[in-house]
Amino acid sequence: MPGPISPWRVTGTRERRRELKRDAVILAAARAFRARGYHHTSLDDIAALLHVTKPTLYYYVASKEEMLFECFRAGLDRIATACSKARRGTASGREQLIEVVRSYVEAITSDFGWCMVRAEDQDLGPELGARIRQLKSEIDQEIRRLVRAGIADGSIGDCDPKMVAFALAGALNWIPHWYRDNASLPASAIADRFVEVFVHGLAPRREGALPGKSS
Amino acid sequence: MPGPISPWRVTGTRERRRELKRDAVILAAARAFRARGYHHTSLDDIAALLHVTKPTLYYYVASKEEMLFECFRAGLDRIATACSKARRGTASGREQLIEVVRSYVEAITSDFGWCMVRAEDQDLGPELGARIRQLKSEIDQEIRRLVRAGIADGSIGDCDPKMVAFALAGALNWIPHWYRDNASLPASAIADRFVEVFVHGLAPRREGALPGKSS
Amino acid sequence: MPGPISPWRVTGTRERRRELKRDAVILAAARAFRARGYHHTSLDDIAALLHVTKPTLYYYVASKEEMLFECFRAGLDRIATACSKARRGTASGREQLIEVVRSYVEAITSDFGWCMVRAEDQDLGPELGARIRQLKSEIDQEIRRLVRAGIADGSIGDCDPKMVAFALAGALNWIPHWYRDNASLPASAIADRFVEVFVHGLAPRREGALPGKSS
Amino acid sequence: MPGPISPWRVTGTRERRRELKRDAVILAAARAFRARGYHHTSLDDIAALLHVTKPTLYYYVASKEEMLFECFRAGLDRIATACSKARRGTASGREQLIEVVRSYVEAITSDFGWCMVRAEDQDLGPELGARIRQLKSEIDQEIRRLVRAGIADGSIGDCDPKMVAFALAGALNWIPHWYRDNASLPASAIADRFVEVFVHGLAPRREGALPGKSS
DNA sequence: TATGAATGAGTATTCATTCAT
DNA sequence: GATGAATGAATACTCATTCAT
Questions:
Q1: Which CATH architecture has domain C71-202?
Q2: pLDDT above 70: residue D96
Q3: For a FRET experiment, which of A25, B183, D121, D179 has its CA 20 to 30 Å from that of D140?
Q4: CA dist B29 to A170, B33, B47, B133, D98, Å?
Q5: What is the DSSP letter of B123?
Q6: Chain A residue with minimal CA distance to B121?
Q7: Shortest CA distance from D35: residue in chain C
Q8: Distance between the alpha carbon (CA) of A53 and the C1' atom of F5, Å
Q9: Residue B159 touches chain A, beta carbons under 8 Å
Q10: What is the DSSP string of A114-164?
C-alpha cells in the first residue's frame, strides 16, 4: 500500500493524467497527515513526497483545506459505500450491520482512515465543514437505521439504537489510533473480533446459547 | 459545569490562590481547546477567557505545550483513578470492568475529556509526549487485565482481551466526539447503555437468559 | 563603500542572482548591526534596508543567527586570507607581519569589521559559536607564528609572542571602535602609523641610544 | 575577587547599608554582564546572584540601563583616576604614560573591565550614552596629551599622537577579550610586556641601546 | 524594604498562498 | 505545467517595568 506514489512522468490522455496526479496529491496528503498530523504537515512536506515543488500542488488543488476535505471524503465515501452496499442485501438487520462492520474496518485501516476520524472538521471552513458533518451524519443515521431494522426483524435485541450506533462507531473509528499497518491483525481479523464482542457481548455464553454466525 | 472560571479576585492563602489560578488556566485552556481545537486556540484566546493578559499565563505555566500536557493529564488521571479504584474491589472481573466503564464515562464527559482523546500527542515534545503515551498505555493495560481477570473467574466469556479492550476504549473515547453538555444523555445513562451493549451484545437475549444487571 | 546594496531587480543567471541577493542580505545585516548593534537590529530593519519584506530574508538565510555568523565569517575570512597571503612570501618575519597588518587594517575597516570584533559570539549557538572561535584562534596562532618566525630570523627582537600578538591584535581590532568611513585616515595611512609604532616603539630613535630618563 | 557578593543582612547606618547594597547590585550586574553579555542577562539572573527578587533591584537602581551605566562608569573611573594620578607626577611624558598603562591594565582586568570595553553604548539612551562617550573621550584626550608631552620633552619620538593613542588604547581595551582571571598572566606582568612592546617596538634593539626596564 | 503578581511592547519564525516567468 | 521568488498574516515567547501589599 505504501510504495512510490508520484505519477509525475506518466502517460494517458491529458484528462487522465491530470486526474491521476490529483489523486496522488490527495494520497500523499493523507499519508503525511497521518504521519505528522494535519497542522504539523506543511505543503512543502507533501510536495517533497511527490518530488514536486509547492506551487505545483496548487495546480491540482485549491488549498490545503481542500486537501484535507478530499481526504475526509475519500475515507467517508468508502464507509458510505460500505453502508449502502450492505443495505441492498436482503439479510437480517443484524447480518447487514455485521457486513457494514466488516467493510468499515477495511475502509478505516486504509490510508484515509486517519483523516476520517482524527482530522478535525475545525480545520475546514464553514462550507466544507458542513459538508463533512453532513456525510458523517449520514453514516451515523445509516447505522442507526440498521440497528432499528434489526430490532424490528428480531435479529437484534431491544436497545437504544442511538447509543448502540455511537458505541459501535466509536469502537470502529478508534481503530486508526492503534492500528499499525505492519504490526496489527489484518482488517478481517479485527472485524471478526469486533463482531464477536458486539453481537454476543462479554458475558459468557451458556450452553446451547445463540447459534451466532461467529466465524 | 461551565460557569465562570476566573478566580482572579479571590481570597485565601497566597499558596492556595496561586494554585487556584493555575488550575483555572488549565481549565480555561481545556475549554478553549475543546471549543476551537488546540491549533486554532491562541494564548490570547485563553487569556481573554480569564480576563487576563497573555504574559500572565506564563506566570502559571511554562508554555502552551505544558497547558496541553496538563489537560491531557487531568483527563487521564481521572480515568486512571477510576481504574485503580475499580480494581480494589472484590467483585468479579466483569463487575469491576463495568465499574470502570461507569467512571470512565463520568470522566470523559468532563471538560478534559476532549483533550484526553482528541488532542494529538504529536503536539507534545518527545519528553511530554512520552509521558502521555505511558499514561495511555497504562490505562489500556489495566483494561486488558480486567478482561483477563473476568475470563479467569468465568464472568467474561472467551475472547481476545486486546481487541476487546480496543473496542471498549474506542467506544468510550469516542464519546467526546458527540457528547454535548446540555443535549446528551447524562453520563450515568450513557454508561448504562454502553454496559448493556458490551455485556450482552446485540443479539436478542433468549428467555431466562443471563440475569444481567440491566437497569 | 556604502552605496546602494539592494540587487533586487538585477539580471544574470538564476544561480548568480540568488547568490548576489544572499550576499546583499548579509551585507545589509552587517551594516545594520554596525549601525545599531546586533540586538537592536530587527529583521524588519534589515528587510527595510533591502526594500523587501521580512519573510523574504528567510528565503536566503535560515535565521538571524546565521546572518551574524556570515558577517563574522566574511570579516574573519578577509583577515585569514591576509595572513596566509603574507606567509607565502619569502620576506623576513617582521616584513611578513607588517604585510599582515596592512591587510588587516584594510579588512577591518570594511563593512564587516564591526561584526568581526564587536559582535559577541555569545549570540551564536554552541555550534556556530565554536566555529567562530576556531577561526579567531587560527588568526591568533598565525600572528604568533609570524612573531616567532621574526625572532628566529632576527628581524624581531626578543619578546613574548603571545603578548605581542594580543597587543597587536588588540590595536587592530579596536579600529572599528573609532574608525569612521568618511572622517578617519585612509586604511593605508592607519596601517603606516601602526606599523611605525609597533616596529620602532615610542622611544625616540637616535644615533647612539636614548638619553632616557628611565627610572 | 569573586566570592559571595550579597550584603543583604549587613549592619551599619541606614545610609551605609543602602550604599553597600547598591554597590553589590552593580557588581553583580557587572559579573553577570561579563559572563553572559548584557542582552543575555535578565534582571532575574542578577537578582538570583544576590539571592533577592527582581523588584528589589529597582529599589537600588532605576533601570537595567542604569546598571550598565554604573558598570561603565565604575570601569572608566578607575582609568580616569589612573590617568590623573599619573599626570600629577613630574616624570617625563613617557614615564607618565607607562604609569598610566600599568594602572590601566590593573583596572581593566577587574570585574568592570568587560563592561567598560565590550558593553555597547548603543544600549544606553542618548542621555547616559552621551555621558559615557564623554568619559571615554576624556581618557582618550588624556592619553594623547601624555604622548604630546612626551614628544615635547623628548622622551617620545616623533609620531602621530592620535594614532598612537588609538593603538595603545586598543591593545589595552582588548585585554578583556582574552584575559581569564585564573589562567592569564597577572596584570603587572601583562603591563610589563605591553610597555616593552610599545616603548621599544618589535625591531631588535641594537647593541648598547636602551637600558630599558625589560623584566 | 521586599515581593508576588501582572503587563505592554517587542520580535523571530512559520507557512499557506500568489504570481511572473 | 511547473517553479523560483516573494509576501501577509499570525503567534508563541521574553523581559523590563510597575504596583499593591
A1: Orthogonal Bundle (1.10)
A2: yes
A3: D179
A4: 25, 6, 9, 21, 67
A5: G
A6: A37
A7: C122
A8: 13
A9: yes
A10: HHHHHS-GGGS-HHHHHHHHHHHHHHHHHHHHHHHHHHHHTSS-S--HHHH
Q: Is A87 on the interface with B (CB under 8 A)?
A: no
Model confidence over C93-138: pLDDT tens digits? 999 999 999 999 999 999 999 999 999 989 999 999 999 999 999 9
CA-derived radius of gyration, chain D: 20
Q: How many CB atoms lie within 10 A of CB D19?
A: 14
User: Does B44 contact strand F, using a CB cutoff of 7 Å?
Assistant: yes
Q: CA of C47 vs C1' of E13, distance in Å?
A: 14
Residues of chain B with CATH 1.10.357.10: 71-202
For residues C69 and C104, give the distance between their C-alpha atoms in angstroms, rounded to a whole number: 19
The neighbours of chain D, by the rule of 3 or more Cβ pairs under 8 Å, are C
**Which triple of cell numbers denotes residue D26?**
552593580
**A3 Rama sector, left if φ>0, alpha if ψ -120 to 50, beta otherwise:** left
- DSSP class of residue B206 equals P
Q: Select from A98, A107, A104, A110 the least CA-distant residue to A215.
A: A98
Give, in Å, how far the C1' of F4 lies from the CA of C62.
17
Enumerate the CATH 1.10.10.60 domain ranges in chain D, comma separated. 14-57
CA count, 13 A, side-chain hemisphere, B158: 2
Task: Out of 1.10.10.60, 3.40.50.12160, 1.10.579.10, 1.50.40.10, select the CATH number for domain B14-57.
Answer: 1.10.10.60
Amino acid occupying residue D73: R
Q: Is the pLDDT of residue D68 over 70?
A: yes
Query: Would you say residue B2 has pLDDT above 60?
Result: no
In chain B, residues 34-53 whose CB comes closer than 8 Å to chain A? 36-37, 39-40
The 10 Å CB-count burial string (b at 16+, else e) for B60-82 is bbeebbbbbbbbbbbbbebbbeb
Per CB-CB distance under 8 Å, the chain A contacts of B172 are 170
CA-based nearest residue in chain B for residue A169: B171
Of D171, D201, D208, the CB nearest to C199: D201
Q: What is the pTM of this model?
A: 0.88
**Nearest nucleotide by C1' from A14 CA?**
F1
CA distance D71 to chain C (A): 18
- Dihedral (C-alpha) D48, D50, D51, D57: value to the nearest 10 degrees? -80
Q: Which three cell numbers stand for residue C54?
A: 521580512
Contact C199/C98 with Cβ under 8 angstroms?
A: yes
pLDDT band at A2 (very low <50, low <70, confident <90, very high): low
